[in-house]
Write a structure and sequence with these properties.
Elements: E1 10-12, E2 18-20, H1 21-39, H2 42-58, H3 69-90, E3 105-109, E4 114-119, H4 121-124, H5 129-140, H6 145-152, H7 156-173, H8 179-186, H9 203-213, H10 216-222, E5 231-236, H11 239-245, E6 257-260, E7 263-267, H12 278-297, H13 303-314, H14 319-331, H15 348-366, H16 369-377, H17 382-386, H18 390-405
Parallel strand pairs: 4-5, 5-7
Antiparallel strand pairs: 1-2, 3-4, 6-7
Length: about 400
C-alpha cells in the first residue's frame, strides 16, 4: 500500500488515541494476508489483501466501534473471500482451502539450523468446518479468543470449549506423533493447561532429532560452510500426500523426499511406503539435508556432486546393494558419464544414486576432502583441481571401479 497518500483517515484505538489508517495497515496486514493465503490461491492473496484494505479505508466511517477494528476488517476479508469464490465458481475453477494448503503444519524448533514441521492437513479434515475455522483462526492467523468469538458469532467460552475439544480430536488423529505434537499446538494457544500432558516424546521425533543432531554440525564443518539460513523440514503423513505436496503425484514409490530453496519435504518414517523403511527415511533425511547444504554452498553444483555427497554422508546404501546394482554396468563398460549423472528424470533412480556415491567416494579416497570441497565450489575446474580433464578423471574412476569388481 502506498505511503504517498496525504490526509490519511484516522481512527480511535482502544486507548482513545488517534492513529492513521497506515498504522492500522502495517499492524493488521500480515494476519489478514495469512488468512487469505489459507483460503485462496496464495498467488492471489496479495491482490485480495490490497482489496480488503482499500474497502476498509473507503468504509472506515461505517466502523462504529462495536467490535475491535481487526474483527471489523476480518469480516471484510471474509466477504472478499466469498466474492472470490463466486468468481472462481463462475470460471469453473477450484478454490483453495486451508485444510489442503501444504503449509498447515506444526513447527518444532529443533536447532540452530533446522526447523521441523509436521503436516496436519489430513488430521484437520477430520474436524467439522466450524472447528477447522476456529483452529485455523487461532493457530494460523493468531486471532485472540475474543476476536474469534466475534468472527464466528459465538460466546468466548463456547469458542474456548470447542477449541479444547478440537485439540482432543487432533490428538487422536496425530497419536503416532505423541504428545509433543499437541504440546506444540498448545504452546501457540494462550490458555492451555498442560497438567495432564504426557512428557513422553514420540520415538520418531527423538530418532529424527538424534539423526540430525549427530551429523549436521559435523557435515557443516567438513564442507567448510555455515548455512546461510535455517532449513525447514516438512513431514507428510504418507506417500500420496507427500507426492502431491512435492508436485509429483505420479512419482515412483522410492521418491520419499525433496527440497526446494530452504524447505525439505519428506514422508513420515512411520508410513514410508513399500520401497523404504523407518530407518531408511531417517538416513535419507540426512542425505537430503546434505544435498541442501551443498546447494547452499553453490546452487550450480552438479547433481552428481549433490547426490553423491548426500549419499556418502548418509551411508544409507549398503556395499552389497551398491555392488549388486552397478556390477553389470561396470563389467560392460557402461559406467554413466558426469552428464548422465545430471539426469533429472526418474531414470536417475535406477543407478544414479549409486554411481554418484561411488564417484564421491573415489575422489575422497584418491584425492582427499580438499579437492572435493574445491569441485563443489568450482565444478568446471578439473584441470586446476585434479590436473586432469573431465574425460581423463572419468576414465581414471572407471578403471578403479573395474579393478574393484575384479
Amino acid at each position: 500500500m502506498s505511503r504517498a497518500q496525504d490526509n490519511l483517515p484516522v481512527y480511535p484505538d482502544n486507548q482513545g488515541t488517534k492513529r492513521t489508517f497506515e498504522d492500522m495497515y502495517d499492524e493488521y496486514r500480515p494476519r489478514i494476508r495469512h488468512y487469505l493465503a489459507l483460503k485462496v490461491n496464495p498467488m492471489a492473496a496479495d491482490d485480495l489483501t490490497q482489496q480488503v484494505f482499500l474497502r476498509a479505508m473507503e468504509n472506515l466511517d461505517k466502523f462504529n466501534g462495536n467490535s475491535s477494528l481487526f474483527t471489523w476488517i476480518f469480516k471484510i476479508a471474509q466477504n472478499t473471500v466469498k466474492n472470490e469464490y463466486r468468481s472462481i465458481s463462475r470460471k469453473h475453477e477450484m478454490p483453495y482451502d486451508f485444510t489442503s494448503y501444504e503449509s498447515q503444519s506444526i513447527s518444532l524448533d529443533f536447532a540452530r539450523y533446522v526447523d521441523i514441521r509436521i503436516d496436519i492437513s489430513a488430521a484437520l479434515k477430520q474436524l467439522s468446518e466450524l472447528d477447522q475455522q476456529i483452529i485455523s483462526l487461532r493457530f494460523f492467523v493468531d486471532c485472540t479468543l475474543s476476536e474469534i468469538s466475534r468472527i464466528v458469532g459465538m460466546r468466548e467460552s463456547a469458542v474456548k470449549n470447542r477449541l479444547y475439544r478440537s485439540l482432543e480430536k487432533l490428538k487422536k488423529e496425530l497419536k503416532e506423533w505423541g504428545d509433543i505434537t499437541i504440546m506444540s499446538i498448545l504452546d501457540l494457544i494462550s490458555f492451555e493447561s498442560k497438567s495432564d500432558a504426557s512428557h513422553h516424546q514420540s520415538n520418531v521425533h527423538q530418532d529424527l532429532f538424534q539423526e540430525l543432531k549427530n551429523n549436521v554440525e559435523q557435515i557443516a564443518a567438513k564442507y567448510n560452510h555455515q548455512p546461510s539460513r535455517k532449513i525447514v523440514i516438512e513431514i507428510y503423513p504418507d506417500l500420496p500426500t507427500f507426492h502431491q505436496a512435492a508436485g509429483e503425484s505420479d512419482a515412483p514409490d522410492w521418491f520419499m523426499g525433496t527440497f526446494e530453496n530452504n524447505t525439505l519435504k519428506i514422508v513420515s518414517p512411520l508410513n514410508p511406503g513399500p520401497e523404504h523403511t523407518y530407518q531408511s527415511i531417517l538416513r535419507s533425511t540426512l542425505h537430503l539435508y546434505t544435498m541442501w547444504l551443498i546447494s547452499d554452498i553453490n546452487p550450480l553444483a552438479p547433481k552428481w556432486i549433490r547426490q553423491g555427497i548426500g549419499g556418502y554422508e548418509a551411508q544409507q546404501m549398503s556395499e552389497d546393494f551398491i555392488r549388486s546394482t552397478t556390477s553389470a554396468a561396470i563389467s560392460n563398460h557402461a559406467i554413466p558419464s558426469f552428464e548422465d549423472l545430471n539426469d533429472d528424470s526418474w531414470d536417475f533412480g535406477k543407478t544414479g544414486f549409486q554411481f554418484s556415491y561411488l564417484m564421491v567416494e573415489f575422489i575422497i579416497k584418491k584425492y582427499g576432502l580438499g579437492p572435493l570441497n574445491q569441485i563443489i565450489r568450482n565444478p568446471d575446474g578439473y584441470h586446476d583441481i585434479f590436473h586432469l580433464s573431465e574425460e581423463k578423471l572419468h576414465e581414471q574412476w572407471a578403471k578403479a571401479l573395474q579393478d574393484q569388481l575384479v
